[in-house]
Amino acid sequence: MRFTSIFAAVVFSALFALPGDVYSQSAEKPVTGDWLLFHSLSDPEQLNPLTSNDAAASEVLGYIFESLLTLDPRTLELKPMIAESRPTISKDKLIYTFKIRRDVHFQDGRPVTGEDVLFSIKAIKCPLVDAPFLRVYYNSVVDAQLLDPYTIRFVTKEPYFLNESVLGEISVLPRHYYDPDNLLKNVGVRDLLQDPSRLADNVKRFAEGFNKSYSRNPMGSGPYRFGGWKTGQEVELVRDPNYWGQGKAGIDQPHLDRFRFRIINDLDAALVRLKSGELDAMELTPIQHVRGTSSERFKSQFQKLEYYSPSYSYIGWNNSSQIFSDKRVRQAMTYFTNRQQMAKTILFGLGQVIDGPIYFFRPEYDKGLYSYPYDPKKALALLQEAGWRDSDGDGVVDKVIDGKRVPLRFEIKFNSGNTVRKSVALTLQDELKKHGIAATVRELDWTIFLDDVKNHKFDAVILGWSMPIREPDEFQVWHSSQAANKGSNHISYKNGRVDKILEDYRREFDAKKRIELYREFQRILNDEQPYTFLFARKSVAAVQRRFRGVEVLPGGIRPLEWWAPPSAQKYSSRVTAN
Fold first, then answer.
1. Cα 445 off chain centre by
2. pLDDT at 555
């Protein structure tokens, strides 16, 4: 799962498309050429393929790096990419053996071999690499060995029902580029499982260099090369004319010469630039969809695509704070939050209120969860029960904690440029003020905001999670172990029963039993309200009509498949082989 800033970039992904949503299908043969200019609300946090964890970075890196396996965009079935086939799996589901294609090469022409795959899992498993949110999915991996230069065997300590997909999804990094001194050459995966303080000096040197030196210069085997990054202006990708998969059956073919992610942190300004032709695609805010893009002229130039994306928005309460450590206070905050009205007025109906972290189209989602209504009286009763009342007559409720009177004052943080989150924060602030609760709001640049989130420097945050297109695994976000070392449990939620459920779920191969476990998990969260779950949005994207191949697939909208006929191409650029 990755942080999503919502409108941070045109990150097109949808678990289930709306019926019949197919656009610009054409019997013409795709050709190469032209550029695609995306809108991005902010710069990526950084572009290290393992340590980045925001949606804007994920969108860029997805065109640069490839994995052993991938999901078929139409069937959502695992299929080979860098691997020759799906792995051989031992009967006890502890050993996974992959054979690597011999025709794959990186963007500098060097061949991809088992050495690169082995290096990639070592980098993930290295506890000094700043990737706790990624490493959690590989907890069961205890060893990896090369059987020959193109065959790798992964050994796990326990069954994990997602092992095939998570092992297959390893982004294969060029060892010669990311570890030029081969510092991990004589280090085994088992060596990386010990206390970080006991790791060899060469491992520490590798991790230090990897964390610091590769945030703006990615290089992989994918169809697009990194072209450049002008901070606050643009990130550019260039089609690799030497791409190894060119013309090969079963490998997606790139058509557009360049992808440019243009960074505009004002959504109204972005829409103006879309209409003027300086952008080709952007995700519209609800008000832009309803009021700013309905003219016949706009419709003649752009198609609008509506689809639900596998993501949700929430207000996260710092569960370790003296205010929000009490679940009654968190419950009260949800009762104060008029979620249905927000979905109606802020999202203009383009969203559905949710009550848990599981995507509502999936069978694991518990439709019987209690949906907290807007009920200020119930909220005030809970606060009084928890000991909060205005004891000094200053208009703000307070409580004596550890011998000191503490007023119910806190700050809500969110990322700048996000009009939806700003509206949620201001609406809740106004509501709380009516009831003697002093909430302030702070709008921060995306990278500064994420740094505060990762370091638990907040009272409350408004954020979102994007979710992969597969069965959920909520360990990354909700297990207590992930509250440390900048893990994704940034609200410091800790519950022993939830930990046990998340651990048992990973080892359970019976889908029905997994559903039962996650129903219990959702009921616990529903009672404890560590988040105030807000809504899942219906995304609306505007795309210039000169592009062909634009369709809503079961796995989302894939710009990789878009192309423009010669007569409609707007930009000409020569992409030459090196």
1. 18
2. 60
Residue 442 to residue 50: CA distance in whole angstroms: 29
> Mean pLDDT in runs of 10 for the chain (578 residues)?
44 36 60 96 94 89 97 90 98 97 98 98 97 93 98 97 95 98 97 94 97 97 98 97 95 96 95 97 93 94 90 96 97 98 94 92 93 98 98 96 96 94 98 98 94 96 84 95 93 98 96 97 98 93 96 80 95 62
- CB-based contact 552:17 (threshold 8 Å): yes
Check residue 26 and give its pLDDT: 52
- Torsion 231-235-236-240 (CA) sign: positive
Query: Which spans in 20-174 are helix H?
Result: 55-61, 114-125, 132-135, 163-168
Structure tokens at 2: 């990755």
Under CATH, domain 66-188 is a member of which superfamily?
Dipeptide-binding Protein; Domain 1 (3.90.76.10)
pTM of the model: 0.82
* DSSP designation for 413: E
Q: Homologous superfamily of 311-537 in CATH?
A: Dipeptide-binding Protein; Domain 3 (3.10.105.10)
* pLDDT value for 553: 79
The two three-digit tokens of residue 77, written as one number: 């079935």
**pLDDT tens, residue by residue, 73-89:** 888 899 999 999 999 99
Provide the pLDDT for residue 124.
Answer: 98
Contact between residue 75 and residue 113 where contact means Cβ atoms under 8 Å apart:
no
Q: Where are the alpha helices (DSSP H) in 349-445?
A: 376-385, 419-433
What is the rounded distance in angstroms from the CA atom of residue 264 to the CA atom of residue 276?
14
Q: How many residues does the chain have?
A: 578
The CA-based dihedral angle spanning residues 495, 455, 230, 57, taken in that order and rounded to the nearest 10 degrees: -10
Q: At what angle do helices 511-528 and 496-507 cross, to 10 degrees?
A: 160
Lookup: tokens for 415: 């990322």
Q: What are phi and psi of 95, to 5 degrees?
A: -125, 130
DSSP H helices, 62-180, are: 114-125, 132-135, 163-168, 175-178
Q: How far apart (Å, rounded) are the C-alpha atoms in residues 544 and 355? A: 36
385 burial class (0-12, 13-18, 19+ CB within 10 angstroms)? exposed
Q: Residues spanned by CATH 3.90.76.10 within the chain?
A: 66-188
Round to whole Å and give the CA distance between 376 and 399: 19
**DSSP symbols for 266-333:** -HHHHHHHHHHTS-SEEEPPHHIIIIIS-SHHHHHHEEEEEEE-SEEEEEEE-TTSTTTTSHHHHHHH
Question: In which residue ranges of the chain is CATH 3.10.105.10 found?
Answer: 311-537
